[in-house]
């Protein structure tokens, strides 16, 4: 068996950086054998833990800002309730966001406040404490190259079977959302590439290919219903960005997360600094708003196919 591929044996690949310091002429062969065995077994556990009987399913969601996780909060809560490890990664701390409640944040502390709001939301949803890539809010496209290696590292460390991120449309064309979609897609493909970031391998990491990459967003039919109640345009840096929605026939999976809706709403409530009383969804009738919030849509961008039905599946369907 070979861990990283190629012609080098697994023991040489794992131990090549540690063999010389401790092996010296005259050492008994049993000493060498013990050391090789210890080195092999430790790395083998890291590399193969997804295959063992105690393997826990893992999901990684990659967003641009604190509160992006709550867009699909119902799905994250559902997965956590089913025993899935849920890992939230955000590219920024949201320091450029509008402060809608000045009683909870100021321009000087908004980054710290939003990070704490994100931690609150992750706790509510049952996710692990968030990982932050520390890109500048509003300029993620300038951070894509710098953030690529840390994100690939996270995927190799945490070994998620399923990765979720924005689609190429960024829901409404937000440049940070679009950049995160590109970044995550590249990282998903590179995580399993044995030629990408080889310095990771000296640390005991191994190439790891997540099984599926999903893009999340709004269905076009949902957007059309929403437009009955609100003008779906967002002003950002002097530009008007418009919600278009994913064509319904392109959606792979729609999850009705009604049982987890209250949890999702509590996660949204963590983001007090971002609570916009004039948000477009606030103009919907309450029942329509709850229906809109409960159903979350996904497009399989890469990886193991789900099957023909968009209903009755989950993100891990068919994965061992």
Account of the 3D structure:
- The chain has 320 residues and is α/β, with parallel strands linked by helices.
- The chain has two domains: 55 residues, no CATH class; 247 residues, Rossmann fold.
- Helices cover 37% and strands 16% of the residues.
- The strands form two sheets. It has a seven-stranded mixed sheet. Strands 6-7 form a two-stranded antiparallel ribbon.
- The chain starts with 9 loop residues before the first helix and ends in a 17-residue tail after the last strand.
- The N terminus is likely disordered.
SS elements, strand count: 9
CATH superfamily of the largest domain: LmbE-like
H-E string:
HHHEHEHEHEHHEHEEEHHE
Do you know the CATH architecture of the largest domain?
A: 3-Layer(aba) Sandwich
- CATH C-level name of the largest domain: Alpha Beta
Measured as a percent range, the helix fraction is 25-40%
- Indicate the radius of gyration in whole angstroms: 22 Å
Gap between N and C termini: 21 Å
User: What number of domains?
Assistant: 2
């Amino acid at each position: 068996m070979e861990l990283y591929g190629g012609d080098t044996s697994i023991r040489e690949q794992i131990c090549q950086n540690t063999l010389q310091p401790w092996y010296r002429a005259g050492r008994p062969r049993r000493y060498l054998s013990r050391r090789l065995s210890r080195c092999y077994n430790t790395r083998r556990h890291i590399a193969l833990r997804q295959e063992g009987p105690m393997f826990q399913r893992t999901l990684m969601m990659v967003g641009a800002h604190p509160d992006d996780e709550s867009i699909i909060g119902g799905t994250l809560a559902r997965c956590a309730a089913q025993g899935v490890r849920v890992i939230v990664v955000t590219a920024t701390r949201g320091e450029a966001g509008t402060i809608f409640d000045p009683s909870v944040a100021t321009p000087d502390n908004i980054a710290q406040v939003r990070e704490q709001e994100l931690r609150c939301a992750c706790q509510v949803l049952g996710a692990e404490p968030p990982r932050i890539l520390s890109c500048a809010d509003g300029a993620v496209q300038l951070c894509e190259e710098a953030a690529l290696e840390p994100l690939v590292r996270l995927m190799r460390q945490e070994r998620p079977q399923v990765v979720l991120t924005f689609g190429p449309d960024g829901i409404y064309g937000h440049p940070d959302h679009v950049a995160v979609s590109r970044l995550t897609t590249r990282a998903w493909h590179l995580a399993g590439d044995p030629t990408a970031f080889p310095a990771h391998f000296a640390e005991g990491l191994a190439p790891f290919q997540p099984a599926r990459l999903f893009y999340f967003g709004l269905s076009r039919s949902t957007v059309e219903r929403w437009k009955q109640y609100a003008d779906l345009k967002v002003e950002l840096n002097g530009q008007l960005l418009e919600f278009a929605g994913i064509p319904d026939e392109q959606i792979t999976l729609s999850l009705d997360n009604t049982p987890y809706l209250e949890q999702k709403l509590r996660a949204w409530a963590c983001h007090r600094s971002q609570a916009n009383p004039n948000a477009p969804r606030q103009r919907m009738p309450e029942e329509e708003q709850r229906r809109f919030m409960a159903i979350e849509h996904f497009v399989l961008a890469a990886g193991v196919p789900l099957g023909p039905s968009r209903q009755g599946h989950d993100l891990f369907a068919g994965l061992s």
